[in-house]
Each structure stands twice: as structure tokens, then as C-alpha cells.
Amino acid sequence: MKSHGIVHKYGDNVDTDVIIPARYLNSSDPKELAKKCMEDIDKEFVNRVNLGDIMVANKNFGCGSSREHAPIAIKASGISCVIAETFARIFYRNAINIGLPIIECKEAARDIDAGNEVEIDFDSGIITNLTKGTSYQGQAFPEFMQKIMKADGLINYINEQLEAV
Amino acid sequence: MGMTMTQKILAAHANLPEVKAGQLIEANLDLVLANDITGPVAIHEIQRLKKKTVFDKDKIALVPDHFTPNKDIKSAEHCKCVREFAKEHDITNYFEIGEMGIEHALLPEKGLIVAGETCIGADSHTCTYGALGAFSTGVGSTDMGAGMITGKAWFKVPAAIKFILTGEPKEWVSGKDVILHIIGMIGVDGALYKSMEFVGAGIKNLTMDDRFTIANMAIEAGAKNGIFPVDDLTISYMKEHGAKPYTIYEADEDAEYEQIITINLSELEPTVAFPHLPENTKTVKEAGEVRIDQVVIGSCTNGRIGDLRIAAKVLEGRKVAKGMRAIVFPATQAIYLQAIEEGLIQTFIKAGCVVSTPTCGPCLGGHMGILAAGERAASTTNRNFVGRMGHVESEVYLCSPAVAAASAVTGKISEPSELFS
């Protein structure tokens, strides 16, 4: 599985309130949430983003509220993967559970710039920066999380477990 | 190798003799929580599951508290979705507004969570119950929905930071100042993926309300959970609130901690977190002249009776500054009633505050006290991110109830002692 797109770059501590502000949480429709994604930190994001694009950020991405609407909004906006130096733990779980690919890679997070063209190979964890001609080794997921992702999220994984019983 | 308090609770709930940091386990859950924002997403996910019956109708809590009383049609529909789910599955602990409260104040008050138990909640401040010596942590809707059906959740066993608390806090210094000080010290990702375990002789000088406040904001340092040892005060609290059987776990002598931090409570000062991160802390003395437009006293962090008593003590016989909007939110109906009986509500109203029904409203910028561009609030809530309480160009300063009340009187971030000298 690969993803390939243009980078939207952010800094440290991007919290779930700016990813999807609470005033929009009276909807749980992914399409509606996607229209408001990143509004409080990057008003132009929704106009700029194309299907397959990649989000890159520094430390502690997705901190704060546990709202699953945050990874849902990012995924529904067309983003194919989020690369960050570190993720807040609830966001990390939520992303895996809803099938939004995420990769922790300090080197990539620091070196990749906004607008760079990037390709990610999820099987090897290798991130290639086509603009700069550099590549970085992202962290591989534990086997258990890979199983959840292969099943395309926690719900399908649990269904598989229920069938096996 | 010994285990931390958190690791012991997780091992017991995973039916394992021991667990180690980094190990992936599946743990049995004693309580699963959702609210009106996260519930509908989970209920939608549950429809996709092959098993649709809940694991235990007595071990699920559904608390519509965020956009309630319903702020608009969409919120009303979300609440209706949760209400109908509760009815369909005969959920014992569903709380309509007349019997409700903000979830993290309500659940301990109702005795639904006690020492030694495990809880996941689709709300990041679920870590509050660590004050009772329980393992509780925030998750997303899918994890929570899966938990409601299976009664289990997977966890990566956390490493831990030990905080040794010594001494006694000065007058006007409370749990909020302690946790703001800690977050200022270690940063908003200082405890990322880890447990914050609080120990030491200073704990006996912290009320249960102080401990709830501290555990509540563990997430603001990125922690998986915050946890306190169980002492006589915890036991009497649990007995007063439902007397469910509990189990006391203690960390082993040789438990491993990634970091040990000692904090002398007597050295702490009233503290405030500047925009736009809870880690941007200064003492109130260092804050300088920060004019404010609105004060919010309440929330799952600071809306308990002890918090209201402190705020009333400051506001007694005083008036809020001209042009100040001061809003008080008792965290539950029971706390509201107690505040009426103790005369606290009269004090607030005479001082020129408004008093609201329990709701999460302003804390997350939902309703009931939204800020316009350029406005500033001093708030006893838990987050001050960009746009958290309203407009992206508004600002939130996090503080204790004592500092919030004093600031309401002076119109700027102030220490209560300024009013009592």
C-alpha cells in the first residue's frame, strides 16, 4: 500500500480543537466535518487540499480532546496519511481505529517542507521526499496494530474475532 | 521487576500475574462512558458490529452533558440518538438533565467508579477517576463503542512518572495550581503515553476535590492516566457515595519509573496558564496586567462543591468589576443544590455573577459564554487552545476558582490575597 501527494505542514501540539472546532461537533457526518477541517489554524486548507495529500507536523499531533471527529475530518478531507514526530495517544488510537494511516518519524517531520511532493510505502515504512530527493525510515507498527489496520479498523477486526469464536 | 500502581490494576484486569511497560494487553472493563458528542459516533459504529448487545447494561454510563440543555436542533438529535440507545439497551446509568451533571463530577458522585477498577470513556478527561485510585483513561468513540459491546479494551501498558508531593499548600493554593505547575514544568507532552503516579506525605493535605482536579488534567500533559493512592479520605469518599466494593492496589517498592519528580506543595503559588497552551504557566504575581472580559467558574475540572466554596469566600460581600461577565457552573445537580443550601448561590448572584445549570458548554466553546474576537477569559476549565472558548482571536487564561473569583472582582488576573490584605 502506497500513498503519494503534496504536503500540508504544521508545527508542534496541533490540538483536536483546531483540527475540528467544537462548534461543529453537533454533526458527525464526515463530509460536513471535512468542510471545517483545520479551520482555526489554516483557513485555506480545505481549498488547497487534494485527494491523496499528506499532512506533516512536529510534536504531539492531535493532543487534547478525544473527539474522533478529528481523524474523521482529516480522512474525509482527502488526506492519505499524517506524518508526525509524535502523536497524542488518543489521536493515535483513533486514527488506527478509523483507518487513517499515521506514521511517527522525527527526521521526516523535521525535514519535509510545505508543498513538498512525498511518497509513503506503508509496508516498509519508507517515506520518500520526491522534491528533495531524500528518504526517511518511519516507525513500523506493532503486529497487533497492523492486524487492526489490515482489517480496515477496529470494528472489522472485532467482527473477525467474533467470527473466529 | 515490580509494578506501578497502574500496571497492577491492568495486570489484574488482564488476568496476568504481571505486565511490563510497552506490553500490549487486553483488559476487562468495569465502566464504559460516553456523552452526547462522542456517543452518537460510537452508536453509529456499533451498528456495523456483528454483536449488538451491550456487555453489561449496569456498567455503561451515558451522560448528555456537552451541548445540553440542547443548544440547537442538531444537538437535540444527537441527544435523542443517545437517549434512544439507552432505552433500547435498557442502560441503567443514563442521566437526563434533571438528574445529571458534568460526567466526570457525576460518575464518582454516583459511586459508579471506585478504587481498583478500570474505566474507558469517550472523553479525554475520563482520567479524572484516578483520584479514587482507579485506572481510567480517555479514548475515542470507536474504542468506546467496542468496549460497550465486548467489555474489553486493548492497552499498551504505560511506563510511569512518579510525582512525590510533600508539604502543605498555602492559603489560596489548590489542586489546580498544583497541576498547572506540573504541566508548566513537564510540558503538554511531558507525560506522553505514560502514567502520572502521585505519592508522598503531601497528599493528605489535598482534598478529594483537589485530587479530582489534578487527575482530571493529567491528559493536559499527554498522560494516559493520573492516579492517586487510596487513603482514609478516599475510602470515606467512596463510602459516602454508594459504597460499591473496591480494591486497593499499591505500587511495588521496586516499581520502575522513568522519572521521579519531587514537588513541595508549600512552595507553590497561585498559577495561571497563558494562551494558547496549558504549559504556558506563570505565577499570578508574574502575570502582569492582564485585563479580562469574562470569568468562568466550573467544569469537570473545578465545578465541585469545594471549588464553589472557595470562589464564594472570595466573592462574599464583593461585586464583580463593571462590565465583567462572571458565569458559575456547578458541576452536578447535587452540587448545585448543596451550593443553594450553603448560601453560595446567593453570594454569587449578589456579587453579580450568573449561575448556570450543569453543562460543559463554555469549556469547549459550545454554548453559554462564547467569546468574541479580542476578548479574554479567566477560566477554571482545562484547555486554552486557539479558539477553545470561541473566536480564534479570543484568549483563555486557566486558573483556580480562587484566582478566577478574585479576577472577576478586579477585572484583571489577580491573587485573592490582594482582596484580603
The CATH architecture of the largest domain in chain B comes to 2-Layer Sandwich
Alpha-carbon distance between the termini of chain A? 30 Å
As for the CATH topology of the largest domain in chain B, it is Aconitase, domain 3
Shape, per Cα inertia axes of chain B = globular
Annotated CATH architecture of chain A: Alpha-Beta Barrel
Rg of chain B from C-alpha positions? 20 Å
Summarize the structure in words.
The complex is a heterodimer of chains A (165) and B (421). The model of chain A has no long low-confidence stretch (mean pLDDT 93). Chain A is an alpha/beta fold and 165 residues long. Chain A contains eight helices and seven strands. Helix content of chain A is 35%, strand content 19%. Chain A has one domain (2-164): Aconitase, domain 4 (Alpha-Beta Barrel), CATH 3.20.19.10. Chain A has helices spanning 16-19, 30-35, 45-48, 69-76, 89-98, 106-111, 143-150, 154-164, and strands spanning 2-9, 54-57, 81-84, 102-104, 117-121, 126-129, 134-137. The two termini of chain A are 30 Å apart. Chain A is globular. Chain B is an alpha/beta fold. Chain B has two domains: 5-263, Aconitase, domain 3, CATH 3.30.499; 272-419, Aconitase, domain 3 (2-Layer Sandwich). Chain B contains 13 helices and 18 strands. The model of chain B has no long low-confidence stretch (mean pLDDT 97). The interface between A and B is large, with 42 and 50 residues.
